[in-house]
Amino acid sequence: MNSARLRGTRLRGRKAGGGDGEVMATFFGEVVVAPSRAGVDDEEETEETAEDREIRRELQEKREITALWRPGAAGSPAEEPLPCSRFVVAVGHNAAAFLSSFILDSVRWKVVGALKLWNEWCQTTNATSVLPTDSFCLFYQLISDPTVLLCQCSCYVAEDQQFQWLEKVFGHIRKEGLQVTILSTCPVAEYKTQESTWTLPSPFLKALKTKEFKGEVCCPLLEQPNIVRDLPAAVLSYCQVWQIPAVLYQCYTDIIKLDTVTIEAFKPLLSSKPLKNLVKDVSESTKILKKLLTTGETHNNIYI
């Protein structure tokens, strides 16, 4: 598989009225490939100067993603892929804040890795240590069961960086026995339906799953012709190609900034099999949510 297959990945939902959800067992989605440069005139190619090529090379190097993994993480020798049974990926501020509020705490979890990246919407410093900033994707390991991993990715991963992200992350995780859960948000205006979006009870959840995922989903499946984009689509596409059971829960909301109502829209997932035994004391969650919204932080509350 090459990077072109995942750039600008978009996945279509299942046909509405297609049965009890088992439609996804035979129909996953259409991967829309980004436009290719094949067919560009040779004359246009030769117009690029040596200075242009040097600028392009420097920019490409700057956009390389750096992986920072703590050596000898529990359950795995140094430099060996981490054994993993459950991997939960939260993409975006609200999804990451949901994990901070209801799952993560300083007693049961520890940071085992991070990804540092740079693009037009996300800049990082030259720090080489694992730090909880918005410019990192942070990875956590459950201390009592090192095969359970969480990822908070609040930073934007550009289209040309998505394949790098997949290689850096899944290249460090064993795929045998792995199940992936992805959480993300999307503007409700992008949800395609025959009825007016003004009448929809925003926010709401929709699910999209790979052919290998046989478990129950916590919300209705995403209907055609809806499309999932960006990093969530790339992760789900990767899991489909590698035959990894995976489900994406996308929250459609009319408030894109950090928002309590949007965060709590993910609460039905707390009873799902991948998350139900990871839930911490929910009585503390309201307090944590207020703190997250006050400080603007979306990472683990142990750092706030």
How would you describe the overall organization of this protein?
By secondary structure, the protein is α/β, with parallel strands linked by helices. The chain is 21% helix and 19% strand. The chain contains 7 helices and 10 strands. The strands form 2 sheets. The chain has an 8-stranded mixed beta sheet, with helices on both faces. Helix 3 (93-102) runs antiparallel to helix 7 (285-295). It is globular and about 55 Å long. The N and C termini lie far apart (40 Å).
Keywords:
304 residues, 7 helices, disordered N terminus, disordered C terminus
Widest sheet, order of strands: 2-4-5-6-3-7-10-8
Tally of DSSP β-strands: 10
* Helical run tally: 7
**What share of the residues does DSSP label as strand, in percent?**
15-25%
Overall morphology: globular
Share of residues in helices: 10-25%
Can I get a quick summary?
With 304 residues, this protein is of the alpha/beta class. Helix content is 21%, strand content 19%.
